[in-house]
Design goal:
Elements (H helix, E strand, L loop, with lengths): L8 H15 L7 H5 L11 H10 L5 H4 L9 H5 L6 H11 L4 H9 L1 H11 L3 H9 L6 H12 L15 E5 L3 H12 L3 E5 L8 H4 L8 H12 L4 E3 L6 H10 L2 E4 L5 E2 L12 E3 H11 L7 E5 L3 H12 L4 E5 L11 H10 L2 E3 L2 E9 L2 E14 L5 E14 L2 E4 L3 E2 L11 E2 L2 E2 L13 E3 L9 H19 L3
Parallel strand pairs: 1-2, 1-4, 2-3, 4-17, 6-13, 7-8, 7-13, 8-9
Antiparallel strand pairs: 5-14, 10-11, 11-12, 15-16
């Protein structure tokens, strides 16, 4: 690109005005880059390099536009020894540079190359990038790149003789399972994926609303995995007998069954008619395009699932949607941009409130009584909410959506597979369980964002190939 080192002082000052204080503490140690999953897929994506270029006001290098691929998984921020809010800076860059000429030039010239690099390392380059960029109606350049990338043929099979006749079973068709299936099939392994639902894609299809990620994009990328010869068996629930059979018949197994079990509030009235778990609500919305809602909806939870459920409730026709969460506004776990989207859609956000009781009449929910939350964690950063008994609030509701977390359902695993705190216990580097031919990843093992799930699928596939090769 022409002026490869052009600095823009006005841009530098705009960024400094929002994050100047925290950026002072970036010493370019590279810890954020080392922790970043996407930096393993795209060479130009290095958070520390992007921060340095941004501080200088340089916007005309491919590296300085690579912030577009940040999915706000927050690993960079969590690992930063100086507490720099790296992922928030990346999101600020997206806000500041929309429509910028240098970004448009990147999209016109280098973005296709970056998508191609992603496609060589993962099966969902467009789905992942769509979530990162959140293109609007007028983002023609981005959508044109996506349209080209979706039609581009997937990387072919490079079968190795040592994998001929080897069989692998994948339990779950979410991003972790599908990535493992994609990588194994490319190496020549015979792969079968088992999915209990009628649709493939896991949370990409049933959890992320279509207004955030178009389903036709996900389906197009899954179709490329099918083209590799992967066998899919939907509407197939793996129980304990089925799992034991796979242990006897297959060479390797990858447990990627996700976390579809809703956590309970354990509050009075939780069993009333009209109280619905968020994942059940979102599954209905995503699979059918609509979900039944009440007139006055209360959403309980402060994470991304809660924000998605609240946004979907608005789109399904609810007149009033109020979101309540334990955290204060500054520490809500949902992405800031997703909270802003919910607010723009008409959702009312009520931070620092905990559920005291769900009230009902004749077995049907009528309201929720809340109590003021003073703090969520104790001094040792353990979940231990403290409440002010004197401050309460009652919100009318004919529907309550609970979104306080999910857990994996691992009842199908036999006693020989070790578990820890409700998840499969797997080696953090190889994802191997205590059974040498069984691996686990994604939400079934430790919980994961989309990019982390993709990375665990690829990591598990690499470990399984080494195992199959006798290493």
């Amino acid at each position: 690109m022409g002026q490869t080192h052009r600095a823009d002082p006005s841009f530098k000052h705009r960024l400094a005005g929002k994050y100047g204080e925290t950026l002072k503490y970036c010493y370019q140690c590279g810890t954020c880059t080392a922790a970043c999953p996407i930096s393993r897929f795209i060479g130009i994506y290095r958070p520390n390099k992007i921060l340095e270029l941004a501080k200088l006001g340089i916007r005309s290098l491919p590296q300085s536009s690579a912030f577009l691929f940040c999915s706000a998984c927050t690993l960079c921020t969590k690992h930063c020894p100086q507490g720099v809010k790296v992922h928030e800076v990346m999101q600020a860059l997206k806000e500041l540079i929309r429509g910028d000429a240098d970004v448009d030039a990147f999209l016109a010239k280098d973005f296709d190359e970056s998508l191609a690099a992603l496609a060589d390392g993962m099966p969902f380059p467009v789905s992942y990038s769509w979530i990162c960029l959140r293109p609007g109606e007028e983002d023609y350049a981005i959508k044109a790149s996506f349209a080209r990338a979706v039609k581009h043929p997937a990387p072919g099979i490079n079968a190795k003789p040592e994998y001929a006749g080897k069989r692998a079973s994948i339990i779950g068709s979410g991003p972790a399972g599908l990535t493992a299936a994609w990588a194994l099939a490319r190496a020549g392994v015979s792969v079968t994926v088992y999915e209990s639902l009628p649709e493939l894609g896991g949370m990409m299809k049933t959890g992320i609303p279509s207004y955030r990620l178009p389903k036709d994009i996900v389906e197009a990328e899954i179709a490329k995995i099918k083209d590799l010869g992967v066998e899919f068996r939907t509407n197939t629930t793996v129980d304990r007998d089925f799992f034991n059979g796979l242990l006897e018949s297959d060479d390797v197994i990858f447990v990627a069954s996700g976390a579809f079990q809703n956590r309970e509030l354990r509050a009075q009235g939780e069993q009333l008619l009209g109280v619905v778990p968020a994942l059940d609500f979102l599954r209905q919305y995503n699979l059918t395009g609509h979900a039944e809602v009440g007139t006055n909806v209360v959403v309980i939870g402060g994470g991304n699932v809660a924000a998605d459920a609240a946004g979907a409730a608005i789109r399904c026709g609810a007149q009033s949607v109020k979101l309540f969460c334990l955290e204060d506004r500054g520490t809500m776990p949902a992405h800031e941009w997703e909270i802003d989207e919910a607010l723009a859609a008409g959702v009312e956000i009520n931070p620092s409130w905990g559920v005291k009781a769900i009230l009902g009449d004749g077995g049907t929910v009528t309201a929720v009584e809340f109590i003021r939350c003073v703090s969520v964690f104790d001094q040792d950063k353990r979940f231990n909410p403290v409440f002010d008994e004197k401050k309460t609030l009652t919100a009318e509701a004919d529907m309550v959506i609970t979104a306080i977390g999910q857990a994996p359902d691992l009842r199908f695993l036999n006693e020989g597979v070790d578990k820890f705190r409700g998840a499969v216990l797997a080696d953090p580097y190889t994802l191997e369980t205590n059974l040498p031919n069984v691996f686990a990843g994604g939400d079934a093992a430790a919980g994961a964002s989309l990019i982390e799930a993709i990375l665990t699928g690829k990591t598990a596939a690499g470990s399984m190939l080494r195992y199959l090769g006798g290493q």
